[in-house]
Amino acid sequence: MDLSRRQFTKIAGLATVGTVISSNSVWAANSDTLKVGLIGCGGRGTGAAEQALSADPNVVLYAMADAFSDHLEESYTSLKQKFGEKVQVAANKKFVGLDAFQKLIDSDVDVVLLATPPAFRPEHLEAAINADKHIFCEKPFAVDAPGLRRVMMAAKKAKDKQLSLVSGFCWRYHIPKRETFSRVLDGQIGEVVAAEATYNTGELWYKERQKGWSDMEYQLRNWLYYNWLSGDHIIEQAIHSIDMLSWAMGDEAPVKVSGTGGRQKRTDKKYGNVYDHFGITYEYSNGTKAYVFCRQQTGTTPSYAVELTGLDGKCLVDCRTGLHEIKGKNPWKYDDDTKFTDENAYKKSKVKNMYQQEHDELFASIRSGKPMNDGEWMTRSNLLAMAGRMAAYSGETISYEQALSSMEVLFPGDISWKTKYDIPIAVPGIKKFK
């Protein structure tokens, strides 16, 4: 049977929903303890460890790794207080330094959680798959095309080796969004003729330089502001909106990508070389255009949503208020008995935490012996965000294929605490696409 990509995506998405195991009794039937290793002990990594420990009654945190000992110890203390005996990280299983990831992977762990700054993801993912580990891989997965190509190959290898690989694109595991986008893919609003996605938010944390920090330590502790570590905020943060947009479009590749961006508010040197706003246009083969806007500017109106216009109606998914609604010929609204009047109401709703859902499904797949692999669509979304940044940085219109084939390297790979590395701020029209 010859399926279009849109049909394939819809069927695969519904199959995933159908295989969710909701009862811990299935896991409990397997008494083997799963040992988890956490690589990257910041806030997101600590959260991922919490969800992993909550996903299965017979899981323990066995090893931890981070470039910085203070990150590791803060995370360990927090997790130990919350989970007690499920945290079994001995002193010799706390690995610190730039090579800590390999030491953890070489330890006796079954599942690895990858949550370091994105630039390290390709190497860490490759190492974990080569060592036959099941993986939770936080988004994004690479900051440049050479790195993403490594991830694509690694994901294929994971599938060949029947290892589970779950991505940190949490909205793909959010039940209301599965319900909504499955309807869009089923044609409930007709052919999509226009789309918009936003991730407009305030500014994030910054860590003042401390005595004794090398240039490299300072940059690693403020990795958000260096595109060679984060990919810039269109990849590090707004990629969630881009992923939802791609999902709604059947994960089809656009034919052209153009964009703009720059630094209007975050102009201080402490903000490294990243932009504070982007505006991207993705054009598809049928003429549909999708617009993505994102900014990190305090004092501006927030927006975190995807809006789709079809021939038979409109669909709105609002991540701040929890509204999931279709208007037009076939109206529909997701309702869990909560009135989503504002963001706080949404947080208090009955909708299951999507971060927990992704770990529940990961561990269920391991227990059932039916590995899941997010590799294909997770790398497509990463490439879409990357193509947007490339187009904005250069001011050139590029194709999806050009973005994938790019030879530009942002992350140098082999770094030490003494490494000095600097990439100038991109100026459209001067910086050229490579």
Give the class-level CATH name of the largest domain: Alpha Beta
- Helix percent band: 25-40%
Report, as a whole number of angstroms, the end-to-end distance.
39 Å
The appropriate CATH architecture of the largest domain is 2-Layer Sandwich
- How many alpha or pi helices? 16
Descriptive overview:
This protein is α/β, with parallel strands linked by helices and 434 residues long. It has two domains: 34-171, Rossmann fold; 175-352 and 374-405, Dihydrodipicolinate Reductase, domain 2, CATH 3.30.360.10. Helix content is 37%, strand content 19%. The strands form two sheets. An eight-stranded mixed β-sheet has the order 8-9-10-7-11-12-13-14, covered by helices on one side. It has a six-stranded parallel β-sheet with strand order 3-2-1-4-5-6, with helices on both faces. Helix 3 crosses helix 14. The radius of gyration is 21 Å and the shape is globular. The model is unreliable at 1-30 (pLDDT under 50). Residues 34-160 form the Gfo/Idh/MocA-like oxidoreductase N-terminal domain. Residues 184-313 form the GFO/IDH/MocA-like oxidoreductase domain.
